[in-house]
Amino acid sequence: MSDKFVAAIDQGTTSSRCIIFNQDGAPVAVDQREHRQIFPKPGWVEHDATEIWSKVQAVVAGAVAKAGLRADQLSALGITNQRETTVLWERKTGKPVHNAVVWQDTRTATLCTELGGADGQDRFRDRTGLPLASYFAGPKVAWLLDNVPGLRQRAEAGEIAFGTIDSWLIWNLTGGKDGGVHVTDVTNAGRTMLMNLETLQWDQSILDAMNVPAAVLPEIKSSAEVYGTAHGQIAGVPVASALGDQHAALFGQTCYDVGEAKNTYGTGSFLLLNTGHRPVPSKNGLLTTMAYQLGGDAPTYCLEGSIAITGALVQWFRDQLGIIKEAAEIETLAASVEDNGGAYIVPAFSGLFAPYWRSDARGVVAGLTRYVTKAHLARAVLEATSWQTREVVDAMYQDSGVHITSLKVDGGMTANNLLMRHQADVLGVPVIRPVVAETTCLGAAYAAGLATGVWSDLDELSSHWKRDAEWTPQMDEETREREYHNWRKAVQRSFGWVEDGE
Fold first, then answer.
1. I need a labelling partner for 116 at 20 to 30 A (CA). Which of 17, 30, 158, 374 fits?
2. Confidence tier at 402 by pLDDT (50, 70, 90)
3. Sign of torsion over alpha carbons 453, 454, 456, 457
């Protein structure tokens, strides 16, 4: 076994885990723990940031123990995280002032409409690459400052710190209230709607428009540099990378060249296409966002198609409907029928993300007849992920002119062979899964290892990538386009459910 090891924390929407990788990029130990999902009102989603920090400490200790290592045998620690989820805490005590407001939360929809004014969703897009939507962190900060009594005054006085989850973890890892480092990286800062994509700095005009005081903001750093050293159980280990989860997956999938793309299938799904060193504006409902920045190198940008609900639809099918007991059962059930029986499920539980950005949409089941069984619905649940991905791929071509010739995939849902086969069918290109499917953690580890000399360059990282499985399209063009037409009809039926004032 190699004698250099890098740990990566992946703080996700439903759980936290730590994976330790050796110098060949192979995982040697993993520990994972779930945290609570808090739903105070319809459309509101919160996490307890203190609980998350506790679970992160536990999984780091667990992974180190399982690997049989001492802390001083770790060369670096990297962090990847659920993006846009917003934490405000007291600098003096380290205590959060409110539950974290999760990326899925829609409470800021009205605020976003107000902020758009006559310019609408695109008011800040030229500077941020993002449409005004409840998804992003900036409006969440503004909402908390306006709705937690006395918080705005304390924030303006410099008593309060804001961060996405990466900032919260780095601050705690490097000492917390006793000298913790308050930083974020360009990929996470770019998802606040407060950072200028060209300058990679906070945009004062947007801060003024959203009424967010600069005093709460972390310092923006690159994605791969030593931010500080860890305290506590892994004292002395350099904390050397931060990447939003989707950017980390792009990096772990070694999509370092223009035109390379990956899709991560988790709670939602996120398709990122590397567009090089210049941001590509989107006219087709995609996000122009950071891919990564390595130290002082020029930043790399990407187009992103963000799909809010994919794996979460399987969870709904299991937990709310009770049709299956374990998520993995959906593949067997769906495979028991030849097709979806004419049924389509559009999972607009909190509106639709790319390429529509419709907060007024809500979930629908279309095409129901008495012929449809639970097996057909199971198949429709899986197919919803494939069709939403197809819509994003089409939009990417319209924006960039780049034809995707294959799609690298990762995340938990890639274990579902039926889904992966259908994904290849509806895209008409091969779908490729790597040996190390947990590329989110791997990307964070790679970036931290680059910053600390474990790996020398991107070519070395690319040499580690290995193919595990590949699915090639089998569906004929006529069937593909007919089914896609029906899917898009179903999507149209989801629009306009939430009316003004509701």
1. 158
2. confident
3. negative
